[in-house]
Structure prediction request, 245 residues.
Amino acid sequence: MEPHPRSKLVTGHAQAFYTTTFGVWDSIHVMFGDKKDGSSIKRDVVLSNNQNFNEVRKYDDGGPIRVILRPVPVGEQRDNFMFIDLVQQVRAVYFPVAYKSGPQSEHLCTYRMIDFHLRKGAEIRLPSEDRSVFLSFGSSIGLDYRHHETLCFDLGGIYDYLSVARKTREAEDGSYDTAAMGPELITLLNCYEVSIDPTTVKVDRPFTRCIALDSVLSDNFSVDVVGDRKNSAAKCSISWSMASI
Prediction:
């Protein structure tokens, strides 16, 4: 497998008499910048991955897919674009709308969601190649990993688009121009197009699995959920699937 410019492939074995060699990417990079082409990255949030090969073995043996909620801290100033290296499958991305839902629920945050696992797929633009590709989404894993590609989110456009009522923003309803807006809100780049330089601020986030939400989601969505309670004030959350490792 070709090397990745930011993540490293880690291999290992499960305990006991399991001889299969498994591989996981050591980290996932979520980056923020001013330019859509990935040439001006301000911050690089490095999310360390789970490297427990016993859990990988359980999935390989037919065990449940585990969903990991990974909060991503957002800078003090609003960023224009967010980039996610697709070295892990992505089920959904949650964008904060209000950090306090109300006087009686100051500990709750309201989010808008882009959910990949509820769709069959979508056409995604590759601006550097002036073409589109169809990405298939799985009902369990969402958007599958694409080791040498990076997903770009136009944050301003996404907030504007998701703030419109779902029925109003349907393509067949002419009151909102999804044809002009929709395809360009999420684009695909080659991972080498996204450049990290010495001025980029790096934020390291260790892997942890403590979150109060896990039991709620596990009980209601028929998936085994783990997550991250540390730095609960993080303002963006990404739902990963462990099926890829």
